[in-house]
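Q: Structure tokens for this one, please.
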Amino acid sequence: SSGINAEWPLRPGHVGKQAAELLSHFKGINKKFGFNVCGEGGEYESLVTDCPLFAYRIQVDSSEKVCHSEDDMAPVWYEKFTDVSLVEKPGWRNLSLKDRLDSFVNGGC
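A: Here is the predicted structure, written as tokens:
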């Protein structure tokens, strides 16, 4: 999962959402403005909070939206994490990296 920083044509309402939630919007602004759906070129920033390689996932317990720049053409917003914690994924800490990858490839997680 990831949090999204919003710059034009993204808006404050997009901040903190997962990229998968915004895919249809991303595709629309790609056609209209040439927006890079993968975020390459600085369209947005993201943070991975969980993946099969992690024995712990990052849990955002509280956050707030912050306006970094109120520019009329390209305002910049971001999600400031005010409290986070690590949550252990049961059984994963003692697995080797190879075992974690094998579990993922074989449909585990």
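A few notes: Helices lie at 19-33, 97-105. The chain has a mean pLDDT of 82.
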